[in-house]
Every structure is written in C-alpha cells, then in structure tokens.
Amino acid sequence: MARSNLRYGLNKGHPTTPIAKTVRPSHKKGVQSERTKFVRSIVREVAGFSPYERRVMELLRNSKDKKARKFTKKRLGTLLRAKRKLEELSTIIQESRRAH
C-alpha cells in the first residue's frame, strides 16, 4: 500500500519503497514440477490402475456416483482426497471416450 505522508487514515506514514519479499522454498511446496509430472505419467502408463480404481471407474460408468464417492472415501480416508480421485478418474474416462 502506498503511503501518503499523512498522520492519519489508511495510507498514513512516511512514503517508502516496498521491499520485494524473497520466495522461500517452503512457499513452493505442492507445486508440481515437469519432471514429477512426466514420471507419474510413465508410472501410470506402465503400472495401470489399482483394483479399487478400476472398481470406482466401473461405478462411475454405471452412474453410481454416490456409491463411488463413499467407496473412495473409505479407501483414501478423507472426503477431499476422494473427491480429487473421483475427478481424476472421471477425466480419464472422458478422455478414453474421446479417443474411441
């Protein structure tokens, strides 16, 4: 926020130039690198899907979304992880439909 040399108000204080903050390594946590993305795609290609993922994909194909969500939550532990996994698997199903 730019200061305006006033004694009061939102912009009070002596006008100064802001110092840019350095990016810490901890702030980069969770950002996926190109290499990691590539390695995971190769592993997925070679290993394929786990049995529970195949079952979830089958449930999604048969439009049993709630059952799939409950099953995935049971396997992964939290609803947020389950939602992410369902989103991932549903996009894979859509891509396979587009390919055919």
Features:
100 residues, mainly alpha
Order of SSEs, N→C?
HHHH
Principal-axes geometry comes out as elongated
Based on CA atoms alone, the radius of gyration comes out at: 24 Å
Secondary-structure content class: mainly alpha
Average residue pLDDT: 93
Q: Give the biggest sheet.
A: none
Work out the helix count: 4
Our measurement of the CA-to-CA distance between the termini, rounded to an integer number of angstroms, reads 54 Å
What percent of the residues sit in helical stretches (DSSP H or I)? 55-70%
Strand content: under 5%
Q: Quaternary state, please?
A: single chain
User: Which stretches are poorly predicted, pLDDT < 50 over at least 5 residues?
Assistant: none
Structure description:
This protein has helices at about 35-45, 50-60, 65-75, 80-100. The protein is mainly alpha-helical and about 100 residues long. The chain is elongated.
